């Protein structure tokens, strides 16, 4: 399993992902799930992947191969709108899943489905994020819910619902993204470090700021400690039950 998320605020986009692909008592592997394609001043695309690793790797290989074909009908650089790029990636995913469907049905390791989050900006257009489902269709974020998640999403959702709005600063959105991933790592063994974080400022059309954190990274340890302490203090300040004050008289 995995956990990836993207946040869209007025000032830009934030992307975060874990790196665990397998988990067990004595077997853990890691693989980057964040992939960035940048043509300065023209367009930027950030792709997050979850689900079957073979499918997501095949989709990425096809994306890169199509970029090398000058006569390709479509690639991530030719789409005039970002939703066209999302549609293209959905088609690649469906193609790969169909090719391996029979083998996967006979396998005990699960299906071939993969899901993606695509975010970025094409010059002259707004920055956007899209969730691409295994079925090939996609949705975009909304002002009411300005974030998208794939993978093991339930543990990291509460802070996003409580804090993130379109007016949230990009730095605060990035901090919330880190807490969201850390909360998921704490509650689910199938999600693990390193954590990758990318922040893109709208209308720059340049390489996003990128950060990779391990469990021993000073920033990660400090963030984890302060969040834990903050939750404990908030819990201590919650209203007391009536019988508590009575019993203390």
UniProtKB/TrEMBL annotation:
InterPro entries the record matches: Ntn_hydrolases_N, Proteasome_sua/b, UCP009120_prtse
GO CC field: proteasome core complex
Swiss-Prot/TrEMBL GO biological process terms: proteolysis involved in protein catabolic process
Pfam families to which the protein is assigned, alphabetical: Proteasome (PF00227)
Name of the protein described by the UniProt record: Peptidase
């Amino acid at each position: 399993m995995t956990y990836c998320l993207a946040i869209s605020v007025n000032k830009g986009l934030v992307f975060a992902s874990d790196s665990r692909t397998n988990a067990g008592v004595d077997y853990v592997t890691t693989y980057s799930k964040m992939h960035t394609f940048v043509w300065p001043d023209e367009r930027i695309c950030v792709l997050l992947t979850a689900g079957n690793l073979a499918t997501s790797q095949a989709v990425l290989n096809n994306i890169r191969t199509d970029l090398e074909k000058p006569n390709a009908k479509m690639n991530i650089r030719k789409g005039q709108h970002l939703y066209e790029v999302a549609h293209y990636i959905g088609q690649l995913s469906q193609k790969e899943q169909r090719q391996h469907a029979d083998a996967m049905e006979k396998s005990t390791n699960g299906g071939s489905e993969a899901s993606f989050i695509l975010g970025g900006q094409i010059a002259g257009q707004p920055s956007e994020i899209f969730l691409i489902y295994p079925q090939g269709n996609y949705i975009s974020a909304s002002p009411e819910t300005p974030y998208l998640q794939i993978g093991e999403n339930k543990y990291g959702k509460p802070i996003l619902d409580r804090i993130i709005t379109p007016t949230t600063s990009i730095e605060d959105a990035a901090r919330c993204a880190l807490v969201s991933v850390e909360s998921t790592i704490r509650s689910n063994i199938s999600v693990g470090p390193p954590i990758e974080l990318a922040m893109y400022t709208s209308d720059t059309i340049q390489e996003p700021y990128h950060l990779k954190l391990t469990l021993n990274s000073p920033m990660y340890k400090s963030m984890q400690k302060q969040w834990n302490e903050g939750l404990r203090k908030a819990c201590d300040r919650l209203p007391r039950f009536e019988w508590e004050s009575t019993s203390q008289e």
